[in-house]
Specification:
The complex is a heterodimer. Chain A is of the alpha/beta class. Chain A is built from nine helices and ten strands. Chain A has a single domain, classed as Rossmann fold (3-Layer(aba) Sandwich). In chain A, 37% of the residues lie in helices and 26% in strands. The chains are: A alpha/beta, B alpha/beta.
Chain lengths: 248, 489
């Protein structure tokens, strides 16, 4: 699925990623943990094609296809989805309109027919119910006036609607209370499948109690400095990042 | 690769202004320049009665004594008023009886613009689809007005101004210049002297006009100005919705468009006036060419509980200078102004409204959305005033500006005057930049950059778009998208 090799990237000319190598096979969930400033968010932006994040060396492919050569929207059409740490507000654009426009843009890019209005609404009702989202909320401008938890739930709703193949969750647990965390995690777990892969970026072990990773990687100083099974997350929770920060 | 990209961009650039074609149509011109004889020439061409000529000559005298105003936040070289044609008309047989007699070239122009002039074509459309009557003004004259008979059955008069002067002189004498007096301002005064054509509407008491009325203005001739004059009277308890659309070919010279629109509403009457203005904006890089759109639009809410609503989508013109206004004279009368003004390239816009509260319990509402891109400048200028008798006057104003890119400017200049203690005015204003974050967010979901800008801008202007008649809202939405093509990145 995703293969990142020796990735170097700069932001405003400042090197942030310094030789990051990572493989996430289809069907697996990998967690990326690390201290503040390690480059976790940078990794998610580089993979999704944000402007201002320049790759200076190395590469990243999705199923063998060069991701870095594609525009952000083209990567989305290939099935790359980022659940934002801080979802943006889109004034005047109802959530449903936004998602339908995005879904159809992706379909168009893939040469598929657009989704019909009834089919879209049926799908939206189904997915909203699963995430306990009031359907009326979807008629409001996307994220405008939504609470932190509502915004995160809306990210997962978009993810369910767009049905991506490669999912990146950036600090999805931040700002969530326990109930919301459970609902969001169930939403994410429902997406797990043999032909999908996920990258879960988080500070805390807490989220990984709900979304069980196959592998855990420690990102520090712009590189993966340690990898292991789920037990690595528990160790980090107990001992902190100090050891790895020094190693980097 | 770079060369290919450049070519693609160039081709896109060519298509950006879709109405930029010009047509070879045999034209009648007045001699170039402006003097009393030209005024007489125009009046004679239109077979006008003596009183109209006298009024024009009076206006011309007054205009000579006036100075061009310079308070707007726009820059342009001095206009040489002697270097323009003040009358250009397609050569035609006198007195066109039906559409079949209109020059096919002109029909072709309107067809290219997507405006249905043939009634049977409109009628042949989907059953139940909205119908609208059209008055087509080509350079200085009205070439055709559709659905006149059907409108006449309910007593609605919809015709060209020239025809109104000949056929309905009492109405014209009574109302023309009663809202915008001859010497109101420099450009209105010039218009009163040399106005060519425009639309006239009268809706009798108690009649709800059965269809949308619209006028399409087209400047085709080179070096000519367009000075149209529109007058709409809604008698007691009547209602009419009117839409004007404007386009012009791409030309290197600046062309002056100095129109005057007057609206009058009697007791309980309502006029909804919508504008989709897409004059040629000039070259986006050099700023060369384009229309100077210096327009005076004013409504007089004479009757109690009468209502006027202005909605405008301003995307074209190299310079836009206009303030559709409401004089709220009647007790409990109300005025609304909904505006989307988009500037891109080197365009300049100074636009807004005046809400003059004269009567008690009058209400007004202003929603203005300005979008600046490229190296353009966009100013909202508005006046809300309450006179001593306007007890209980209320206004709500919301002015939002959106900046796209780093080289454009937005300004908001509100004037508020309350001359009694019982008026309640509220003013809200915001300025935001279309954020990289929002763009990236939308692109990450699968939208291309252009689609993302479009979606975000449509969200920004939604409050105003929904005030437009349905079928024009769709058109306006597309226009917004076209105007902003290539504004990012």
């Amino acid at each position: 699925m995703l293969s990142v090799s020796n990735l170097h990237a700069t932001v405003d000319g400042k090197p942030i990623l310094k030789g990051l190598t990572l493989d996430v096979p289809a069907g697996e969930v990998h967690a990326i943990m690390g201290p503040n400033g390690a480059g976790k968010s940078t990794l998610s932006y580089v993979l999704t094609g944000r402007q201002g994040y320049d790759v200076t060396e190395g590469g990243a492919t999705l199923d063998g296809e060069d991701l870095l050569a594609l525009e952000a929207n083209e990567r989305a059409a290939k099935g790359v989805f980022l659940s934002f740490q801080y979802p943006l507000e889109i004034p005047g654009v109802p959530a449903l309109t936004f998602i339908r426009t995005a879904l159809n843009a992706q379909k168009k890019s893939r040469g598929e027919p657009e989704i019909t209005a009834p089919a879209f609404l049926k799908l939206a009702r189904e997915k909203a119910a699963a995430l306990k989202i009031d359907f009326e909320m979807l008629k409001r401008a996307l994220n405008v006036g939504f609470s932190g938890g509502e915004k995160k739930r809306m990210e997962i709703f978009q993810m369910a609607m767009l049905s991506p193949r490669f999912l990146i969750l950036d600090e999805t647990d931040s700002g969530l209370d326990i109930d919301a965390l459970r609902i969001v995690s169930e939403g994410v777990n429902a997406m797990r499948s043999p032909d999908r892969a996920m990258l879960v970026i988080t500070h805390y072990q807490r989220l990984l109690d709900y979304i069980k990773p196959d592998r855990v990687h420690v990102l520090a100083g712009g590189r993966i400095v340690a990898s292991g099974g789920p037990e690595l997350a528990l160790e980090l929770e107990r001992d902190g990042y100090d050891r790895y920060a020094k190693a980097a | 690769m770079a060369a290919v990209k450049q070519t693609v961009e160039q081709v896109q650039g060519l298509e950006k202004y879709k109405h930029g074609f010009s047509s070879d149509i045999e034209q009648d011109f007045a001699p170039k320049g402006l003097n009393a004889d030209i005024v007489r020439f125009i009046s004679a061409k239109k077979n006008e009665p003596q009183w109209m000529l006298d009024s024009r000559l009076d206006a011309f005298e007054r205009w000579l004594a006036m100075d061009e105003p310079d308070w707007a936040k726009v820059n342009f070289p001095r206009i040489d008023y002697q270097d323009s044609y003040y009358y250009a008309a397609p050569k035609e047989k006198v007195g066109i009886a039906s559409l079949d007699e209109v020059d096919p070239e002109i029909l072709e122009v309107y067809k290219k613009l997507g405006i249905p002039l043939k009634e049977q074509e409109v009628l042949a459309g989907v059953v139940g689809s909205p119908r609208y009557a059209v008055d087509a003004v080509f350079d200085s004259v009205s070439v055709v007005t559709t659905f006149k008979k059907e409108l006449a059955q309910v007593g609605v008069i919809f015709c060209s101004m020239s025809e109104a002067i000949r056929e309905h002189p009492e109405l014209v004498k009574q109302y023309l210049g009663s809202v915008v007096p001859v010497s109101d301002n420099y450009f209105a005064c010039l218009n009163a002297a040399v106005f060519s054509d425009g639309s006239f509407v009268y809706v009798p008491p108690g009649v709800r006009c059965p269809m949308e009325l619209s006028t399409y203005f087209r400047i085709n001739a080179e070096n000519s100005g367009q000075f149209e004059r529109t007058l709409i009277i809604a008698d007691k308890g009547s209602y009419v919705s009117y839409l004007e659309g404007c386009t012009a070919p791409m030309r290197d010279e600046n062309q002056l468009h100095a129109a005057v629109v007057e609206l009058v509403t009697m007791d309980d009457a309502e006029i909804k006036y919508s504008t989709v203005q897409n004059w040629y904006p000039g070259d986006p890089e050099t700023g060369k060419g384009g229309i100077y759109n210096f327009v005076t639009k004013r409504a007089d809410c004479r009757g109690d509980r009468s209502k006027v609503s202005w909605t405008q989508v301003e995307t074209g013109s190299s310079i836009t200078w206009k303030y559709p206004s409401c004089v709220l004279r009647g007790e409990g009368s109300s005025g609304e102004f909904y505006s989307i003004a988009i500037t891109n390239g080197r365009q300049q816009a100074d636009t807004g409204t005046k809400m003059i509260h004269l009567g008690a319990n009058t209400r007004s509402r202003i929603i203005s959305k300005g979008i600046s891109a490229g190296r353009s400048s966009n100013t909202y200028r508005g006046l809300v005033s309450a006179h001593p008798k306007a007890k209980g006057a209320r206004n709500f104003t919301q002015c939002d500006s959106l900046l796209i890119g780093k080289h454009c400017a937005a300004h908001t200049v509100p004037y508020i005057e309350a001359r009694n203690g019982q008026a309640k005015f509220e003013h809200e204003a915001t300025t935001t930049r279309l954020s990289e974050d929002q763009l990236f967010y939308a692109m990450q979901r699968g939208l291309s950059q252009e689609e993302a800008v479009q979606l975000l801008v449509n969200g920004f202007v939604k409050d105003v778009l929904q005030e437009l008649p349905m079928e024009f809202a769709v058109e306006a939405q597309k226009l917004v998208a076209i105007s902003l093509e290539g504004s990012v990145g």
